[in-house]
Amino acid sequence: MGRNKLAVVRYKTLDACFSNPYKHYFFSDLMDEVNKALIEEGYQSGVSERQLYDDIKFMQSENGWEIELLDSPRIGRKKYYRYKDVSYSISDSPLGARRENVLKEAISIMNEISGLPGFHWLNEAMIRLRSMNDDGQESIISFSYNPYLKGLAFFSVLYDAIKNKKALRITYRPYTHDNPSRFLVHPYYLKQYNDRWFLFGFNSSVGEISNMALDRIEKVKHSDNVYLQNTFIDFNEYFDDNVGVTVKENDPIARVVLKVKNIKLPYFISKPIHGSQRIIERGEDYSKIELSVRINYELEALLLSHGDALIVETPAELREKIRGILQQILATYQ
Fold first, then answer.
1. Residue 126: pLDDT band with limits 50, 70, 90
2. In the chain, what is the straight-line distance between the N-terminal and C-terminal CA atoms, in Å?
3. CATH code given to domain 158-222
4. 254 touches 242 (CB < 8 A)
5. Alpha helix stretches (DSSP H) within the chain
6. How confident is residue 75, by pLDDT bands cut at 50, 70 and 90?
7. CATH code for 254-333?
8. b/e map 235-258, b = 16+ CB within 10 Å
């Protein structure tokens, strides 16, 4: 795990301890909590006393969050640590002066290069950074994010393993299984879809590329096994013929024709179902659009989410699948 990621884990853990009004955290307790958090994140070595003192000092400095702790509160001779205002959290705190200047500088540099080919993704990143930098202003922007989603704690461990090319032992339990399975995984790629995160990597236990939802991962441990380099997949193209994250490379690409109500057509034009989408026919009440995609669960779910705004015309197998699902739904409500 990178040093910055480790520091974030330590700061967040200390922040949670300092804001707890119901427990007195002595220094030894803080060390225990931080070490526990590091282990949960997949890091095996503990934090030293000196590092922990330095972390607290940094959090109190203008380079950190300028936190305010009670002035040497004690029980007997032992000093405990707590915020003066227990409703405070560094998550809600404005950035320190130095960090704010660094952020402004980063935004300025990103603004210069965001117009270059291949850097369009920086536009959203800049919006996010600017929203963080609007100290004291009323919130005017929000991003889709589910803070209660399970598995997010593993994100930094997985990211670092991909970056540093390290194999992992992953305990994983799909929704359809009562008991978890344990796999040796060589992680390659992280992808977000529909507010969920997914890990792609070579699963040595089954001998193929696996797709694992982070919210179904129960445990991650580093492995001493030699990392297997990715010579299988170009992830820049891997998802091109699919909707979502379920990729069945052996399945053929299908020609899907959808009959769409004209009143809803502007929506589909502004937010295409897939990059291959094109209008092939315009009528008085309906128009037809064509997709070239592999049929998978995510495509079916997306088509169903549009209700009566569209009808699947072809292929016949997909039309019958959607019809069958709708009949089951109708039967449930009767």
1. low
2. 54
3. 2.30.30
4. no
5. 3-18, 27-40, 49-60, 97-113, 122-133, 155-164, 265-270, 297-305, 316-333
6. very high
7. 3.30.70
8. eeebbebbbbbbbeeeeeebebbb
